Batch of 2 targets.
Target 1
Amino acid sequence: MAESRLLCALALLITAATTARALPVHTPRHTADQCGYQSCPATKPSMLNVHLVPHTHDDVGWLKTVDQYYYGGRDYIQHAGVQYILDSVVAELQKDPARRFIYVETAFFYRWWRQQSAGTRSIVTQLVQEGRLEFVNGGWCMSDEASTHYSSVIDQMTLGLRFLNDTFGACGRPRVAWHIDPFGHAREHASMFAQMGYDGFFFGRLDYQDKGRRMKMKEMEMVWRASGSLKPPAADLFTGVLPNGYNPPPGFCWDQSCSDEPVQDDPELEDYNVDDLVNKFISISKAQAEVYRTDHIIMTMGSDFQYENAAPWYKNMDKLIRYVNARQENGSTINLLYSTPSCYLQELNLAQQTWPLKSDDFFPYADDAHDFWTGYFTSRPALKRYERLSNSLLQTCNQLEVLGGPRSRDGLFGKGDSDTMRRAMAVAQHHDAVSGTEKQHVADDYAKRLAIGWDHCQVLVSNSLAVLSQSDVPRVFCENLNISVCPLTEGSKMFSMSVYNPLARPANWSVHLPVNGSSYRVTDSGGTAVNSQVIPVSKPTQHVRRGRGYAQNELVFQVQAPPLGFSTYSITLLKGAGAPAEPRRSAPVSMQNKYLKVTFDPTTGLLSGLTNLETQQSIHLSQNFYWYNASDGNDESTQTSGAYIFRPNSSTPYTVNTHPDVSTLQNSVVQEVRQQFSPWVSQVVRLYEGSRELELEWTVGPIPVDDGLGKEVITRLDSNISSAEYFYTDSNGREVLQRRKDFRPTWDLKQTEPIAGNYYPMNSRAFIKDKESQLTVVTDRSQGVSSIYNGSLEIMLHRRLLRDDYRGVGEPLSEPGQFGDGLIVRGRLLLTLTPPDTAANAHRPLAQGMVLQPLLSFQEGALKPSTRLEVSYTAAALPPAVHLLTLSQWDQDSVLLRLEHQYESGESRTHSQPVTVNLQKLFSTLTVVGASEMSLGANQWKENMSRLRWNTGESVKPLRAEPGDPSPWEITLSPMEIRTFLLNVQQR
Ligand SMILES: *[C@@H]1O[C@H](CO)[C@@H](O)[C@H](O)[C@H]1NC(C)=O
Ligand SMILES: *[C@@H]1O[C@H](CO)[C@@H](O)[C@H](O)[C@H]1NC(C)=O
Ligand SMILES: [Zn+2]
């Protein structure tokens, strides 16, 4: 060990002299393979070219788990086996070089590839190099767009794209993003795809009214301007709506799971049908061409889990192509060909068209008048939270793997890794995973994968912190602090707690530790006493945890940790104090700290007002819990509320209780108003000393359904803010979009569901505002949100339903929870009240802090004096506008770094400016000796990136002409920009 450190120091001396210029980590390699656009089949000018795209749509878990789908197990649930699909397609592709196939989900391809012989691998490599097998999209899965956070989407894309590049080099790089199944499309996804270097994007589902209008106007294909901050064309993405969702045209499905007639082409035999089929196909093609702009149209020849036996598909398509094209000798102008999305895209690009621009998003999605896919914004709220929390642990795990060096993977506490969690998180991004639209046993499988990821990361984190803190005392992680369960803190008389901060700026949080004593001494890493209080564990918390813990009390105090570092607190039980004061059984008139004053209605105990004491702004603000009765279908439509669909029976929700039981607790650390609305709804309204936001901790469940009524539980905030039916929601946790009740920016909406048709996804925040005030709600997971009344914001928290909604999942969404009597969910909303022009300064850091939680670890007993109690691994905190998005080990001596400007342009007077960071001055223990910039998905060097240009009828300035980087090491970020670097680093 000592020797190697010396070597590093030497290397450092040598490189120090040459660091005037950022050394590229890799020399770009130019490949001249036949893949990519060069491999596209010839088309015929002045004919209608019909691009047949053979494809399969393989869900990374839905009715079966990802592994059951891979092998084809549990056939009684659904017949589907992805291994056979890849086996069969590879065999069929070899029979004819004209045949094409695309593959999408790298999670499956990776499983299959590992099992192939060298011979098969070389055949597949050749197919890829010749463009006959093309990867499309290429992420680990096809992510959900409504409930995912950008950080996890970027990670899952990176994982899949890296495997493809490592395995196939440049020919494995997908040119096209392909989201044929997700239930609505987020603008931030389009922005990310553009920044990942994709040339185009195709999808299948959009609102039926929107689709109708686009067909009429020939606007099925467009340029999506996906950012209000990035300079065009940085976030412009060519976007196409597929004609039949992702299915073949009716009558032309030749999968073994379909029952359409094959091409029967022997005139001697009965049922000869070539003329009929060709006529029908030609008329379908002509009709389709009517709603598109060019001489090229696309047909998706495949569907869910198809091509398990690829032979019938290819055999019949071969014939269809032959017979349709034979008509050309008699003057037909239809030209049929095997193709891929990128070859189709290339033809569109060559077609010299001007394309319409789109700048809003594709939410919400309805496929009929009463069929709004807005329920899944909230479905499975506990899985949604677990997924979000797992992202936080993964980022911490990644960082500590880098900071702790090799001994974090194989160290004092055994072998740990971040890969297990990375894969589990990637699978969880699938559009039937975090979306909540899978069967219960599949949801359990996603959670189990994450839990295994937690185990592996916790070993890594323990190893890393042992190195960094120089303490070999084992660490305990308490995952159930939210329900006051942690055996170590409950029983210990003396322990320490390390707080690791994954943010690159100093941060503070409040912690509640379950304890059984009634007085403790808490000291920080400098030995200074920290103000702490002991309060009794609330009745609802005791009810939720049942027999899982026995703490009487909670020890509450505030902790701080330096940027990208940890701080350690020591906690000692003191003798002789009596039981802590029970909460007063009455409603307070108000509670306040330096920054906020919160008032309550003395007769109901409900929230009644909020004042920002710094700005002297005051609003009326009431809040309560309600539930919509889920529709079982009615005369107008049989549509029910289910895992996907939200359809309330009535626009007026039931109030849970107008007069909750209220108790109050006030001390020098925290003030709480505890509200019990019913046995299954409670809340703590909480104001910490020194905090600028109000916390609403809600607990909902088990939702009772013995009355035969499915329930969709919301909380609604009603204020006197004149929001005029406008409200705002974030897109995948990044840019914010304006929403307006009963309105869509791109078409004249005929509103048919006054509640469900106004719901939008909220991934991290939503707000309403008028000229004076903005009320922002930051949440801890993705949820559905709406504003039905002026000044009001409602958030759907939990759903329990009794019917399936006919979209295939085949189960009512009625989560049993751990005890079988219905899932209980607890979560937090943070409220800020600010002037609109400073709101972002508050909600941007607040939301990042909610996403990247501190990692708490506990050690029993006293620590050795040699233990390092506080360290920061940044050389200095990053500027407030800059967020450290990714710091993860890439290979032995390189790490992947993503820096993000976290403000939109014009959003903040102080922060919406370009900001410069020096890559060599980021870390205190790592020397950066080389840096190469990459695409957002880290599968291409930035300097090699070139995307197809599209004409939108306006002049477009080149990408990032200004402001430019001051020097190779100093990089400038503009509002909302993310820059990705591969860094060569050495431990100091
Ligand atoms: C072309 O037209 C001729 C004369 O009508 C006919 O015999 C032949 O079958 C046609 N070819 C095709 C491919 O339809
Ligand atoms: C892609 O993979 C090749 C090896 O197949 C490697 O040389 C190259 O550096 C990789 N490119 C990127 C951008 O990682
Ligand atoms: Zn799907």
Note: The CA atoms of residues 702 and 822 lie 4 Å apart.
Target 2
Amino acid sequence: MAKLKPQSGIMDIALYVGGKSHVDGIENVLKLSSNENPLGASEAAKEALVRASLDMHRYPSTDHGALRAAIGDVWGVDPARVICGNGSGELLMMIAQAYAGKGDEVLFTEHGFAMYPIYANANGATPVVVPERERVVDVDALLAACTKKTKVVYIANPANPTGTMLGEADLARLADGLPEGAILVLDGAYAEYVDGYDAGKALIDARENVIMTRTFSKIYGLGGVRIGWAYGPQAIVDVLMRIRGPFNLSAPALAAAEAAMRDTAHTEKCRIENAKQRDWMATALAEMGIPSDTSTANFILARLASEEEAVACNDHLTSEGILVRYVGGYGLPNCLRITVGDEASCRRVVHAIGKFKEARV
Ligand SMILES: *Cc1c(COP(=O)(O)O)cnc(C)c1O
């Protein structure tokens, strides 16, 4: 038999591991491990999805026109420069596919999202990890790491799992300092949680080398439906359109996302409730001696005293049926990322961590 050999880089990929959702023998599991919206999707989105299911023998729209129009209305962007994907993950992958191949470099930072090296390796490009400064993306370090081979720079703003973010001046300095031929990708999965943040729109409108990706998986509560979008310069969007599958989004997903996008009252309610519970949880943990950086997203990164304590705390929470994310794999061995739940969930996790701390002294 002929020897089958995948493209170079593919066997370097370590499989992505999602947040756990079950604990053996425990019924009432509280899942705070995947940054899902505790309030769920908008009622309008649920109704739209059910209604669309009645026509599921029909192929979906290929141009996603109605959804792009809704995005244009709500975010004030030109629908012609919006492209929709099967989760923002598909769009993040397509950017690497279109612009980075063998011999090219793809940059991201040390605590960056675990999918970024996968996008590089899947396309044969070389992943390059750049240090952060105290859990914040370091613009100087990124610029220093750039070479003529740099083609794509991924940063999430706000970042996951740190919850920190860069301001517009830093983002502009990064975009303007990149070598010719490199694209800055602003992964805005958590942008909606930041009141007044344009997710990079002004930067994009003034430049040719910046694109943003956005998702319906977080504040819009549609993680199970798989849908996201990107907005960028027309030239980049036109390139991505050529490699996008014509039927990459199902009709029920398109209908749900359009309704969710237009239900701005639900989005606003989720943003306000998240900020309230997040700040309560961060303060309560700080009072127990567990600090966290000020989070701008829908999770906090709790810093335990040591790796041993973080692992023990994670084990204790799991035994109580509470799932959070141990982020040792993100270069943060003493940290737990805890999704902001509803009020009762935040109280439950803080109470359980309090019991854990008490038992250790
Ligand atoms: C959750 C998340 C996404 C969203 O991915 P989808 O494919 O849209 O579900 C993207 N980037 C980061 C950093 C995330 O945390």
Note: Residues 35, 87-89, 113, 156, 160, 187, 189, 215, 217-218, 223, 228 surround pyridoxal-5'-phosphate (CB under 6 Å).
